[in-house]
């Protein structure tokens, strides 16, 4: 079917998923967003925001309570098999059959996608080479480390030359250098082959580096969306970091009186989170209290600050740092 120019590779319209009847939990609540061809879109949010539930609906392994999912303008509910033949998926947490070897797993998967024999072998070789796994091809999945397993699931996702790839935390448990390789590979697939990638992650640095755009979920709704740098810039606070020689208690007192969050470190270092327009007034108050500091740094928020801000607003503990 010809696809009209400008049709998004993926469009989600008013998607909702409610679990349970007695005590219903709405994991995804009227979510709408679109992803262009060749775009890398980050799907972010604190724990329980609805990312995995969304991915599962996009894969048709969960049925939406309401709403529509369109791939190339075609409804997933009506063209499931044809659409899913063009969708790749990898999750750091989904398992492949553990008693099959790497090579066997990929072969079974390639057959499911009806790849011709010659292509199956050639493509498997290219991907295993690319992810440094060719020498491990005869090993069973159960004999692989977590990082090696992740690499095989990524090979699986890209094996049938998908047009869209859904990646749920793809670089969790990877060494930093392998995670970098994966990012380069994903970027190359998008730039050269026009593959679109939806990417969930807790790793802010990664998202800021690789994603063209991010959609930030909170309680199943979009809390914000935009380019990573734009999103970070919408947070209106700054962090003022001072190395205080005299009057550390006064700094804490002045911050508390203004209801500002502070973090203290050893060596008289204190960081104060403050709305940007109030920075000058805060520094003036320190000067009147005769506080002396030898170093000052004013830092604009990062995307990670934004993430923490949303988590805190929900009264959740800060998420555990992601393994690099
Ligand atoms: N099968 C289910 N039955 C009931 N509630 C569920 C089910 N699956 C998910 N939920 C709830 O839906 C909400 C969203 O969960 P989901 O796993 O989609 O979030 P997430 O953003 O992927 O979180 P995380 O980052 O922790 O993986 C949570 O409140 C979760 O407890």
TrEMBL record:
Protein name, per record: ABC transporter ATP-binding protein
Keywords, comma-separated and alphabetical: ATP-binding, Nodulation, Nucleotide-binding, Transport
Any one GO molecular function term: ATP binding
Listed PROSITE patterns: ABC_TRANSPORTER_2
SUPFAM superfamilies per record: P-loop containing nucleoside triphosphate hydrolases (SSF52540)
Similarity annotation: Belongs to the ABC transporter superfamily.
Record-linked InterPro entries: AAA+_ATPase (IPR003593), ABC_transporter-like_ATP-bd (IPR003439), ABC_transporter_ATP-binding (IPR050763), P-loop_NTPase (IPR027417)
Lineage: Bacteria, Pseudomonadati, Planctomycetota, Planctomycetia, Isosphaerales
ABC transporter domain location: 10-244
Originating organism: Paludisphaera mucosa
């Amino acid at each position: 079917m010809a696809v009209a120019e400008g049709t998004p590779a993926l469009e989600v319209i008013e998607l909702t998923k409610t679990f349970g009847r007695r005590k219903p939990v709405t994991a995804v609540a009227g979510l709408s967003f679109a992803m262009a061809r060749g775009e890398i879109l980050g799907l972010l949010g604190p724990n329980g925001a609805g990312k995995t539930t969304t991915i599962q609906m996009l894969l048709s392994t969960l049925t939406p309570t309401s709403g529509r999912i369109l791939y190339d303008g075609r409804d997933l509910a009506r063209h499931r098999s044809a659409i899913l033949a063009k969708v790749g998926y990898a999750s750091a947490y989904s398992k492949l059959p553990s008693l099959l070897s790497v090579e066997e797993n990929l072969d079974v998967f390639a057959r499911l996608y009806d790849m011709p024999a010659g292509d199956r072998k050639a493509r498997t070789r290219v991907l295993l080479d690319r992810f440094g796994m060719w020498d491990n091809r005869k090993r069973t999945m159960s004999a692989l480390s977590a990082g090696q397993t992740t690499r095989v699931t990524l090979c699986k996702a890209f094996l049938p030359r998908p047009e869209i790839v859904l990646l749920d935390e793809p670089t969790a448990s990877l060494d930093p250098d392998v995670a970098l390789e994966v990012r380069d590979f994903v970027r190359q697939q998008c730039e050269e082959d026009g593959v679109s990638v939806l990417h969930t992650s807790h790793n802010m640095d990664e998202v800021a580096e690789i994603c063209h755009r991010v959609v930030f979920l909170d309680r199943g709704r979009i809390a914000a969306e935009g380019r990573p740098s734009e999103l970070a810039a919408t947070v209106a606070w700054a962090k003022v970091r001072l190395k205080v020689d005299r009057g550390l208690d006064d700094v804490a007192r002045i911050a508390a009186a203004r209801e500002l969050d502070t973090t203290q470190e050893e060596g008289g270092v204190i960081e104060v989170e403050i709305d940007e327009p109030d920075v000058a007034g805060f520094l003036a108050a320190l000067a009147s209290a005769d506080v002396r500091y030898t170093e000052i740094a004013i830092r604009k928020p990062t995307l990670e600050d934004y993430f923490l801000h949303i988590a805190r607003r929900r009264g959740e503990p800060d998420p555990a740092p992601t393994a690099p």
